[in-house]
Design goal:
With about 270 residues, this protein is of the alpha/beta class. The chain is about 50% helix and about 10% strand. The protein folds into 2 domains: about 160 residues, P-loop containing nucleotide triphosphate hydrolases (Rossmann fold, 3-Layer(aba) Sandwich); about 80 residues, Helicase, Ruva Protein, domain 3, CATH 1.10.8. β4, α6 and β5 form a beta-alpha-beta unit. The radius of gyration is 22 Å and the shape is elongated.
Length: about 270
Amino acid sequence: MIQSHFGITHAPFTHDEQPLLEAQKEILENLRVHSHQRGFCLVAGTPGTGKTVLRKAFAQSGDRRVCPHITRTLHTYAGTLRILCQSLAIEYKGNDLKCEKQVIEQVHALHRKGKAIALTIDDAHLMPPQHLRKLRLLLEDTPGNYGIILFAQTELLANLALAVNEDLQSRITYSALLLPLTPEDIEAFILREFERSALAHSRLDPAALHLIATSARGILRHAVNLTTASLIQTVRTQSTTTTTAHVNTALMQPHWREHDYWITRENDDEK
């Protein structure tokens, strides 16, 4: 829809690889160093601030490292262990002890090849602390340096600060917080994606760009979704340039409105 209207091959934000922002590059370099220290690394941030992009970049950074990945945070250790086995190409046979033994054997084999383990966990704030303990103890019995890299929402920071989780917090060798971006950073990000798609900056009116950047509230995912929704409105009106009218039409969708707005509307309807 967007591609055919604007005569481009890829719509903005649809490329397989996303270049890192400067703040993300700095965090990535720190992860590459600290993930060799036999402990936890933690990258925290609100949803949509770029944790998944950073996790993928870390997994592709090489450095003689194998990066098994737990993509779904399950409530049972057996489920978590099963995903870990799958990530290491180990057949899970329904027995935790046997599977743990196979994981250790696999890590030993990788160590003999000069490779280290860096386990990455998405949505780590949903994982029970006891599972993190078990995973750490599992890798503690392996040779060489390992790392467990946690990508989580900020609530994990508060959880680890509890006295009962001091043993986990004390093993964090590096942590970083992904902060919301400034409107200027959001604008630069959007224009960069337009360039990658061979879409001229003039296709997005400066006032529309500013409205998107301020409405995104510093969240990259919001910027992507709102820009895409505005481009779709541009296509629907058969326009050649995205204007504030297109952005405002997208912003009229309920999920862009603040919660207080809907409470006010409900109260007005009851009068």
